[in-house]
Amino acid sequence: MPDGPDDGSPASRGAAADPQSVARAICLRLLTMAPKTRAQLAEALRKREVPDDAAEAVLDRFTELGLIDDEAFAEAWVNSRHHGRGLAKRALAAELRHRGVDGDTVNEAVEQLDPDQELETARRLVDRKLSSSRGLDPQARTRRLAGMLARKGYSPGLAYRVVREALENEGVPVEDDYP
After folding, report:
1. Using CA atoms, how far apart are residues 89 and 109, in angstroms rounded to an integer?
2. What torsion, rounded to 10 degrees, do the Cα atoms 87, 99, 96, 148 define?
3. pLDDT tens for the 179 residues of the chain, in order
């Protein structure tokens, strides 16, 4: 969907639009689709060749009005992705940094999750996958389940502890030589 009039239309033959108006229109359109970070909006404006001074002015104004709020974005992202996908702090932090959220804001957002909450989420994830690995030997089950947790950002120590606990609760003997 173009941000301005279609090429060749009567509107495209008029005077060039004010860069700040173009920037406002782009930002508003993007923000109506989904929440965005300031960095994501700045990148979108850069790609559409909005002059830097116009982009900064619009981004500053949107921040002042509360339309751009990286702290609220990060907090909502952490809650949504942890509860919805079971992602651990490490994976959540990487996703937020990828979206241009600054380090302090990322740290504040992921610190909302306490270790007990992360542990419970890891247990729930393993419990959901446990039955699908029942025909495998304990080492293969351990690797698969720990690998699933690792892909979601859980540390190897926590992953193996949760998997071992789940297998032992099933009565499966687990060897002590796992990492």
Report:
1. 9
2. 20
3. 455 555 654 444 444 678 999 999 999 999 999 999 999 999 999 999 999 999 999 999 999 999 999 999 999 999 999 999 999 999 999 999 999 999 999 999 999 888 899 999 999 999 999 988 888 888 899 999 999 999 999 999 999 999 999 999 988 777 765 55
**What residues does each domain of the chain span?**
10-65, 70-110, 115-169
| DSSP-assigned states of every residue in 142-159 | HHHHHHHHHHTT--HHHH
Global pTM?
0.78
**CA–CA separation, 4 and 8 (whole Å):** 12
* 152, two tokens: 């979601």
